[in-house]
Amino acid sequence: MTNHELIIGDSSKMPEIKDGSIQLVVTSPPYFNAPFDYKKLYKTYDSYLEMLSSVARELYRVVAEGRIVALNIDDMLVDGEKFPIVADATKIFLQTGFRYRDRIIWKKPDGYIRISRRSGVLLQNPYPMYFYPDNLLESILIFQKGKFDYKSIPEGIREKSKIDIKNFQKHNKDWYRTLWEMTNVLPNSDLEKGIAAFPENLPFRLITLYSYVGETVLDPFVGSGTTMKVARAQNRNSIGIEKNKDLVEVIKKKTGFDGQDKLFNNNDVFRIKIRSNKKVIINEQHNREDN
């Protein structure tokens, strides 16, 4: 049985989560004022970085010693200005106390461009200095809190979590490289309308590679619930935090807690907590008995 908790509120504070209780964080913060998805979400770039700093401090508190934070993030072009989000996010997490472990590049399929506005400038003005490349890449920054004690994992859990390398390689041929080629979620696909969701394969790889069965995975910007869905399928517990209350039904459906739970263990438990002022209200609980 696994437990899954959705918290409706701001992830800059996580009072519901105990110190050192999270074994893995997989998340993708909102893009900074992206023209298509988050325009004018933040008044200034400094306010965006301030939000990241607040979340990083809370993550350092709740993440267990030796464990991983995987941050899917990338630089952003807004109104002709490029913001160095990867560099600034790295600096923020290092200053918070995390160690910089790795950077993985997620490459989207060749030819995928939502709108080719950048490279198209050269077509209209075929002269030097008009070139701006289209971006098919995103970064997955891997941070670690301290050092991991491999002997701390019981032998039974180690064996249950053992990775079937041949099967994993079959579906993830580039898993051992710092360049992962994954098909992205298409805009306005089912359950993703208006949401910049990452593909299920991204949390699948990270959860498989950086956590053990029965551990807890946190996504402080859970969006449509992709991380929670994959965590459940991988026999991990999960916690998701999301500001938009309108996404509750989407998350319930994606994670299989919408009353039609056929793909997962029906003993799994799903709770929704909606913050009201400074109080936390338990709104719903779903498990086999409820269904």
Summed up, what is this model?
The chain has 291 residues and is of the alpha/beta class.
Would you write up a description of this structure?
- The protein has a single domain (3-286), classed as Vaccinia Virus protein VP39 (Rossmann fold, 3-Layer(aba) Sandwich), CATH 3.40.50.
- α1 (45-62) packs parallel to α2 (85-96).
- The model has no long low-confidence stretch (mean pLDDT 87).
- It contains eight helices and twelve strands.
- It is α/β, with parallel strands linked by helices.
- It has helices at residues 45-62, 85-96, 120-124, 155-160, 165-171, 201-210, 226-233, 248-255; strands at residues 3-8, 22-27, 63-73, 76-78, 81-83, 99-107, 137-144, 179-181, 216-219, 237-242, 269-276, 279-286.
Secondary structure topology:
Blueprint: E1 3-8, E2 22-27, H1 45-62, E3 63-73, E4 76-78, E5 81-83, H2 85-96, E6 99-107, H3 120-124, E7 137-144, H4 155-160, H5 165-171, E8 179-181, H6 201-210, E9 216-219, H7 226-233, E10 237-242, H8 248-255, E11 269-276, E12 279-286
Parallel strand pairs: 1-10, 1-11, 2-3, 2-9, 6-8, 9-10
Antiparallel strand pairs: 3-7, 4-5, 6-7, 11-12
Helix pairs in contact: 1-2
